[in-house]
């Protein structure tokens, strides 16, 4: 493991300043251009977005809404040419459709028609899109044979691994328990060494409605927050009504593997990786050749997991990794006060994971992974979001975005702040880069928030400027030089911190460890997702999610008005009358060429 030169700033760019306005900003010497927007056609015969004449069939052929994870899969070894695989996490009806009064309260579906619900379903899922740098400029290729939409409305998926076919996964439409239509609320993810993408199903509870009384698995429903009734889908589509289809919800909350290089391939839900509100699937090949996937369960007081494959990755013959993710061991983390991490295996029959305790089989351990984590005594964390592993140093970065519900009595060493509004980053330190071990160490890298306000209790390297600190770390990436970049999601809290979300560089080693530096800023009401580097760091793809959505009634001149389709706080990125704000991918390049930052 190479030692770093401790005193040098590993990031050469001049940082931008905190602030909030209607457009995006990037550090001097870089360009940040919109690459593809919600509604852009992915096929030669697909229509352009027509916001007043949308249809579900058109949306199925267009880039989806609320881009989150971005993966880059090279096609031919050229770092300027590849496939982007993009998650479309959720939809904001009041910004997509005319005539809605503002953000709808949960359980309030006033004005939502069947056609709107179908458009929403078609706007969820993923897009695969070929991109190439031509004449210095990145563009997406509308007529690429690789382009694909995957949606919860129309894409058939297989269910594989130990839980496939279990009684708890069977429905009237699928008596096999091995086939499901679609994927939901795909948030962060990961890319495997063999070029497939792992997409994480996160807040699946929002999509289900119905009366839970008399449900055969009431405790399971409750632990997963189902039904949350955040969407009207169950009104028009029986499988999202738990009273009509009691086990459909068990078929979501998984990690889905997608092969973007084969547009006819069937996505596969890999049950060996457990069922929870998945966020992140950080891939790292351990010293013995086995793959380790680190995963968060993003909810207040939920857990960090890792999956270790049984077999090594076959780097010579990628096709031999087809079933690699069906065999292995899932672990959940306990963070000990002495600085140790204990990884507790979710294995049926071991410890408390027995039939007497409600786990009849390994399938049930996986379907009820949260309950298994509870039984094993895992450490409740402050919302584990994205995770990345640095293959050079063996260190793993865990974004803990916030937890305002943690009380003083619930504070522990790894979650050290009560009412944790601003979040923190924990490092898991492996011994010699062995990611398969059952014991590691942990350290806190930063405690986020404004270091000039003592009551915040922030922890940064003092070299951090007044623009270098951030709040609510959510997504992250490690570039090909081993440097960490963090993207934030403060929700409406930008009005407190005084800055919109963005991307910050964060030093992890040497004397400057814990120093942040602001690189990119999103427009008002958006959060920052992605980020993803091209193979030579010549491009950084960032996903601007839900522009104009979060907390915009607090913005100067809004006078308390929330954003709507007709009256959004920003019309980024088109700034055209009548065109609503559009979640979009932005590609950042260095002016004159070369690596980012
Ligand atoms: Fe979808 Fe946890 O962010
Ligand atoms: Ca996230
Ligand atoms: Ca990431
Ligand atoms: Ca987020």
Provide a quick synopsis of the model.
This protein is mainly beta and 597 residues long.
Q: Would you kindly provide a written description of the structure presented here, covering whatever features stand out?
A:
With 597 residues, this protein is mostly beta strands. It has a single domain, classed as Neuraminidase (6 Propeller). The protein contains eight helices and 31 strands. Strands 14-15-17-18-19-24-23-22-21 form a nine-stranded antiparallel sheet, with no helix packed on it. A six-stranded mixed sheet has the order 9-8-13-12-11-10, with no helix packed on it. The two termini are 23 Å apart. Residues 89, 187, 202, 279, 298, 385 line the site of MU-OXO-diiron (FEO). InterPro entries: PhoX (IPR008557), TAT_signal (IPR006311). This is PhoX family phosphatase. It comes from Halomonas piscis.
Name the descriptors.
597 residues, mainly beta, Neuraminidase, 9-stranded antiparallel beta sheet, 31 strands, 8% helix, disordered N terminus, binds MU-OXO-diiron, binds calcium ion, PhoX family phosphatase, TAT_signal, PhoX
Map the helices and strands:
Elements (H helix, E strand, L loop, with lengths): L24 E2 L3 E8 L18 H4 L7 E8 L6 E8 L4 H4 L17 H10 L1 E10 L2 E4 L7 E3 L5 E5 L18 E3 L4 E6 L5 E5 L16 H6 L9 H4 L18 E4 L9 E3 L7 E8 L4 E8 L2 E3 L1 E9 L15 E8 L4 E6 L16 H6 L1 H8 L4 E2 L1 E7 L4 E6 L23 E6 L9 E9 L25 E6 L5 E5 L5 H4 L4 E5 L9 E6 L5 E7 L5 E7 L38 E7 L7
Parallel strand pairs: 8-13
Antiparallel strand pairs: 1-28, 2-31, 3-4, 4-5, 5-6, 5-7, 8-9, 10-11, 11-12, 12-13, 14-15, 15-17, 16-20, 17-18, 18-19, 19-24, 21-22, 22-23, 23-24, 25-26, 26-27, 27-28, 29-30, 30-31
The chain binds MU-OXO-diiron and calcium ion (CA) (3 copies).
């Amino acid at each position: 493991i190479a030692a770093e030169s401790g005193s040098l700033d590993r990031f050469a760019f001049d940082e931008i300043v905190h602030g909030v306005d209607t457009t995006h900003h990037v550090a001097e010497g870089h360009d940040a251009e919109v690459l593809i927007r919600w509604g852009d056609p992915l096929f030669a015969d697909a229509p352009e977005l027509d916001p007043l004449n949308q249809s579900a069939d058109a949306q199925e052929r267009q880039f989806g809404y609320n881009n989150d994870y971005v993966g880059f899969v090279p096609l031919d070894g050229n770092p300027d040419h590849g496939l982007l695989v993009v998650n479309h996490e959720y939809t904001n009806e009041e910004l997509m459709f005319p005539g809605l009064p503002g953000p709808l309260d949960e359980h309030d579906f006033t004005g939502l028609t069947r056609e709107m619900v179908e458009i929403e379903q078609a706007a969820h899922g993923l897009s695969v899109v070929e991109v190439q740098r031509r004449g210095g400029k990145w563009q997406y290729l509308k007529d690429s044979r690789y382009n694909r939409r995957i949606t919860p409305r129309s894409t058939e998926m297989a269910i594989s691994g130990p839980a496939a076919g279990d009684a708890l996964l069977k429905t009237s439409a699928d008596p096999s328990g091995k086939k499901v239509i679609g994927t939901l609320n795909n948030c962060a993810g990961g890319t495997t060494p063999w070029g497939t993408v792992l997409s994480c199903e996160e807040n699946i509870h929002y999509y289900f409605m119905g009366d839970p009384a008399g449900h055969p698995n009431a405790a399971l429903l409750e632990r997963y927050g189902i039904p949350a009734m955040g969407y009207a889908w169950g009104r028009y589509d029986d499988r999202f009504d738990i009273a009509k289809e009691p086990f459909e919800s068990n078929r979501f909350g998984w990690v889905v593997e997608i092969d973007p290089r084969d547009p006819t391939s069937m996505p596969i839900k890999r049950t060996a990786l457990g069922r929870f509100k998945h966020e992140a699937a950080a891939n790292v090949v351990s010293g013995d050749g086995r793959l380790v996937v680190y995963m968060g369960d993003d909810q207040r007081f939920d857990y960090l997991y890792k999956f270790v494959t049984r077999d090594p990755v076959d780097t010579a013959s990628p096709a031999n990794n087809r079933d690699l993710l069906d065999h292995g061991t899932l672990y959940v983390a306990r963070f000990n006060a002495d600085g140790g991490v204990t990884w507790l295996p979710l294995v049926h029959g071991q410890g408390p994971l027995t039939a007497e305790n409600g786990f009849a089989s390994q399938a049930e351990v996986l379907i009820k992974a949260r309950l298994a984590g509870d039984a094993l005594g895992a450490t409740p964390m402050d919302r584990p979001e994205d995770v990345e592993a640095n293959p050079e140093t063996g260190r793993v970065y865990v974004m803990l975005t916030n937890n305002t519900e943690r009380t003083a009595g619930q504070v522990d060493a790894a979650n050290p702040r009560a009412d944790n509004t601003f979040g923190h980053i924990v490092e898991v330190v492996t011994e010699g880069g062995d990611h398969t071990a059952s014991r590691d160490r942990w350290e806190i890298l930063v405690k986020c928030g404004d270091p000039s306000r003592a009551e915040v209790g922030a922890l940064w390297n003092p070299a951090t400027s007044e623009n270098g600190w951030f709040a609510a770390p959510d997504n992250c990436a490690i570039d090909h030089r081993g440097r960490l970049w963090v993207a934030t999601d403060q929700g409406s809290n930008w009005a407190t911190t005084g800055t919109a979300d963005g991307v910050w560089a964060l030093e992890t080693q040497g004397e400057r460890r814990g120093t942040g530096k602001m690189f990119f800023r999103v427009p008002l009401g958006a959060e920052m997702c992605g980020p993803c580097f091209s193979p030579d760091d010549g491009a950084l793809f960032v996903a601007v999610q839900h522009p104009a959505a979060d907390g915009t009634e607090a913005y100067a001149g809004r006078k308390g008005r929330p954003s709507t389709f007709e009256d959004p706080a920003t019309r980024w990125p088109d700034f055209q009358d009548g065109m609503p704000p559009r979640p979009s991918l932005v590609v950042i390049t260095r002016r004159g060429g070369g690596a980012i930052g």
